[in-house]
Structure formats: C-alpha cells, structure tokens
Specification:
Layout (H helix, E strand, L loop, with lengths): L1 H8 L5 E5 L8 E7 L2 E7 L5 E5 L14 E3 L3 E2 L6 E2 L5 E3 L19 E4 L2 E4 L9 H12 L8 E10 L3 H8 L5 H4 L1 H4 L18 H20 L7 E3 L7 E6 L30 E6 L3 E5 L4 E10 L2 E10 L11 H26 L14 H19 L15
Helix pairs in contact: 3-7, 3-8
Organism: Nostocoides japonicum T1-X7
Protein name: Rieske (2Fe-2S) iron-sulphur domain protein
Cofactor: Fe cation
Length: about 400
C-alpha cells in the first residue's frame, strides 16, 4: 500500500513543496524528497521558478545533497557536468564529436506557483484542474502577497505514523478542545455552525462569534477577498478548501488568546483584526494566513509508518527579528500544537496496528476526514478503473 500511495497519490497529483519566499533570489534552491525521487526547486536566472529532477544526465549521480542553498550553476560532483538554473547543460568534459548538449539538460518537473505557494507534480500528465482551482483561490490569497514575505523560522518534525493518519488528524478539530489548549485559546469554541447545537451557556460567545464574522466579511470585502467558504475536497483531483474565520480574544493572530505575534502586518492587509484564512489541499498540505504572519505546512511520507511534517513561518520582509517579532513567541502556539498532534498520530499508529483494532463511526463534525478518505478512495478507483477519469486525471492502470 505504501508503494501504491507513492505511485498513485504522490506520483500523480499536485504536491505543495515550498514557498517562493524560500527562494527569493536567482540561484536560490530547495530540494524535496518524495519517496526515492529528489526534486530541485530553484529560482532561475529569469527569476521564474523551475523544478528539476536531482539526477545528472551523464551517469545518474545526485547533483545536490543540501536541503537548500544558492548556486550560480549546478555542477555534478562526479564528472562536473554543469547545468544552468533552468536545467540546460552548458559543460560536459570530453564529449564525443557531435554531442548535442541541448538534448541532455536536467529533466524538468511540472511546477506551478499559486500566490507564492509552489506545487510540483511528478507525472508527465498532471491533473488538468489546477488552473481552475488556482482561479478560485487566487482572490483569497492575493492580498497576503506571500511571495514577497520572508522566512522567519522553519521546523521539520518526524511523526511515527502513516501519512494518512497525519492528514486525518489535521482534517478534524474534534480533538482540539482537550488536545490543543494553546491553539484553541485563539479560536471560538465551535465545531458547528448550526445554532440549534449552541447551548444557552455558550449563546453569548456565539453571538460574539457571529459579530466577529460579520466584521471579518466586511474587512475582507475592502481587500477584494470573496466572502464565504469554498469546499471541493473530494470532488476533483486537486481537492481544496478555503475558509476565512474570525479569531477569539484579541482576534489578531495566533498568540495566546488571539494576541499579535509581529508588529508588521503582511501584504495588503491593513486591519490587524483580520482572522484566519485557512486553506487545505489534498493530499499533503494546509495553510493559515493571518494579518501579521503566515504558516504553511506540508506532509510527505518517508516510510509506511513515518511522515515528515515541515512547518514554515513567514513574516513581512521588513520585519526585524528581535524588534518586530520574537521567534519563540511567533512559533509558540504551533510548536506546541505540532508536538501534540505528533503524539496523537503516534498513539493512533500503534492502535490501528493492533490486531484487535476495528474502525468506529465518524462523528458528525468529522466531515473533512470523511472527505479526505473519499478523495483517496476515488484516486485509487481512477487508477484501477481504466478509461479517462471524468474529473480530469488520466489513469495509468497496471497489471497486479
């Protein structure tokens, strides 16, 4: 199943891998490992974003070992074949007469940037719906100007659980009240928008939530952000969801009690009380955009029971560490939340591996978990079913 997931899910869908803020200058690069495939994401000399397979076209050596860095050109350490940042081959010592360098550039990988978020697909025939999804999400994301932010901090957390458990845990907040006291200090305590589910004790808080939501909608309208959520998590290959939610307490950011964590607002946001723009992508990423910073997450499988979760905190390019923000305070809530989620995932991995495990029913608020599982099953159905997927993914069936 792990090999199948690498082939069908991670080998054929758009994967969030990095932000443009991580490669701000020509020659800046990051490497991404997906199974045995290594990809270089680089800002090329024309200041565009390229994605290249990290494999020399001569004898197959890995070209780059570092997770990130900056180069003038890529030089293979084995025989010094040299490539420009767009992947074109410019030097190959002792080449045979008539050798055509133009035919031996680094293999390119399909890459798209959505408002500063960089996605790659390892298939030569990626899902065709990405542009449509980008058209929906661009107005939500554009005011934050993510490509122009800077990286304030980045962490990698290895979770001892299957990648699907990591994503299922992310796709619900039923566990949040008891499991994430730091995070929930900035959120209103509601898992439902049905007024009939609100108890008399919570009615005043609910009224405050409605008022904050109305103000957020008005503030978003001044920045050209569409009102209302969009949710297509299980009905297309590039499943997504976007919601713009008010924050509780001070209502400003992910500091304890909704407090701000940076003195500089980001992008075109001029209202410090600007809520949480939350975005999910199938199969491996989620994002939170706030008035004073943004947090982006990606999960990539490392083994059947190991998943690497990378978290990146972005702040305004002119924010000064130690003056406008403090890294410990900036990262406090999500560092704690990530560690708590790691514990939940690892406990669940041990539990579902127990021969005595039998699945239980979903709670009514676990609809996004169900959507993730439905999306996953549909992707496998597309792979094994033959013919062209009516949602736009071309199956590549194989005898098994």
């Amino acid at each position: 199943m792990y090999a199948l997931d690498l082939e069908v899910i991670f080998g054929r869908h758009w994967l969030f891998c990095a932000t443009e803020a991580e490669i701000p200058e020509p020659g800046d690069f990051v490497t991404v490992e997906v199974g045995s495939t290594s990809v270089i994401i680089v800002r090329d000399d024309d200041e565009g974003v390229s994605a290249l397979l990290n494999v020399c076209r001569h004898r197959g050596s890995r070209i780059v070992d570092d997770p990130c860095g900056a180069v003038g050109n890529f030089v293979c350490p084995y025989h010094q074949w040299t490539y420009r940042t767009d992947g074109s081959l410019i030097f190959a010592e002792s080449s045979q007469p008539g050798f055509d360098r133009s035919a031996f550039g680094l293999r390119r990988v399909p890459v798209r940037s959505l408002a500063g978020l960089v996605f790659v697909c390892l298939s030569d025939e990626p899902p065709v719906d990405f542009d449509e999804v980008a058209g929906v999400l661009e107005p939500y994301l554009a005011p934050y100007r993510l490509a122009g932010l800077k990286v304030a901090h980045q962490t990698d957390l290895m979770e001892a659980g299957n990648w699907k458990l990591v994503m299922e845990n992310n796709r619900e907040c039923l566990h949040c009240d008891a499991g994430h006291p730091e995070l929930t200090s900035a959120y209103f305590p509601f898992l439902t928008s049905n007024p009939e589910d609100i108890t008399p004790r919570l009615r005043p808080v609910y009224e405050e939530y409605l008022g904050a939501g109305a103000k957020l909608t008005e503030a978003g309208a001044t920045r050209g952000i569409p009102s209302g959520a969009r949710r297509e998590l299980d009905s297309r290959p590039t499943g997504y969801q976007v919601t713009h939610m008010p924050l509780a307490g001070k209502g400003r950011s992910f500091g304890m009690g909704g407090a701000p964590v940076s003195a500089k607002l980001i992008g075109d946001v001029h209202d410090a009380v600007f809520g949480d723009m939350s975005v999910h992508f199938q199969p491996n990423s989620w994002f939170h955009l706030l008035s004073d910073h943004a947090i982006v997450f990606r999960a990539l499988p490392v083994a059947p029971d190991r998943t690497l979760v990378r978290t990146t905190w972005l702040v305004s390019a002119d924010a000064v560490e130690g003056v406008d923000y403090d890294v410990d305070r900036l990262t406090e809530v999500w560092t704690a939340t990530n560690d708590e989620d790691r514990g939940f995932v690892e406990r669940q991995q041990r539990g579902v591996s127990d021969p005595g495990y039998l699945p239980g029913p979903y709670a009514t608020v676990e609809f996004d978990v169900e959507a993730f599982v439905t999306w996953y099953i549909r992707r496998l159905e597309s792979h094994f079913g033959g013919g062209r997927d009516h949602l736009g993914l071309v199956p590549q069936t194989a005898a098994r």
